[in-house]
Amino acid sequence: MTTATATATSATTTAAPGPISAHFQQLYRDDADPWQVRQRWYEQRKRALLLASLPQARYRNAYEPGCGNGALTAELAPRCERLLASDGAAEAVLLTRGQLAGARHVTVRQQQLPADWPPRGSGPFDLIVISELAYYLDGAALARLVDCCVADLAPGGTIVLCHWRRPFKDRVLAPARVHGGFDAQPALHRLLRHEEEDFLLDVWSNQAASVAQREGLGI
């Protein structure tokens, strides 16, 4: 795993934790890696596919809500000039801060989405990564999240969603419904879809050009 080289700054919000966040808080209190995201090849491979799917080599200002224990955050950080990571569980926030302890360009906050979407001045973001998060939202919260992402996406920016497809107890919305909410946005163009039995990975941009076209190929 690639690690960042600079001290993660911290910030907190005052929002009270919801039931899902309280559930995750207990999970991370009991086990710093409850899904074994660092040990399992499935998780390592999924992160590698996500990172390889990004249409730009580097990003100026990225946002990763639902960062968990920081496994993906640590691999995103070297490709970002600024990175804001957040999670609803305070214990996960502490774990991510520890993981990114040397990364001065990374800020880690406790946030409940979509209520705690970053305030004005944090964005716009040219990369928004939502991984294993949005299926916990209901329809109204998902719609608000989609609106926030589209409104705060910088010109030419990237939105990435990646979600486990198999049913599980705490899931509220199916991944197809979650990703469909972004597909339905006229301002977004899907650049990539990677679909397996286990997970769904989609990449959108508000610029329709492909990776090759962005570099002057095939025009």
List keywords for this structure.
219 residues, alpha/beta, 8-stranded mixed beta sheet, 31% helix, globular, disordered N terminus
List the helices and strands and how they pair.
Layout: E1 9-12, H1 19-30, H2 41-53, E2 59-65, H3 71-76, E3 80-87, H4 90-99, E4 106-110, E5 125-131, H5 139-151, E6 153-164, H6 175-183, E7 189-195, E8 199-205, H7 211-214
Parallel strand pairs: 1-4, 2-3, 2-5, 3-4, 5-6
Antiparallel strand pairs: 6-8, 7-8
How would you explain this protein's 3D organization?
31% of the residues lie in helices and 26% in strands. The chain is globular and about 55 Å long. Strand 5 (125-131), helix 5 and strand 6 (153-164) form a beta-alpha-beta unit. Mean pLDDT is 89; it is low at 1-7 and 11-17. The longest helix is centred in the N-terminal third of the chain and has 13 residues, at 41-53. It has helices spanning 19-30, 41-53, 71-76, 90-99, 139-151, 175-183, 211-214; strands at residues 9-12, 59-65, 80-87, 106-110, 125-131, 153-164, 189-195, 199-205. The protein has seven helices and eight strands. It has an eight-stranded mixed β-sheet. It is an alpha/beta fold.
β-strand number: 8
Portion of residues in beta strands equals: 25-35%
Instruction: Report the total helices.
Output: 7
Cα(first) to Cα(last) distance is: 36 Å
Gyration radius, in Å: 16 Å
Q: Can you list the strand order of the major beta sheet?
A: 1-4-3-2-5-6-8-7
Global morphology? globular
Helical percentage: 25-40%
Q: Low-confidence spans: pLDDT under 50, at least 5 residues?
A: 1-7, 11-17
* Overall mean confidence score, pLDDT: 89
Order of helices and strands: EHHEHEHEEHEHEEH
Structural category is alpha/beta
How is the main sheet built?
8 strands, mixed
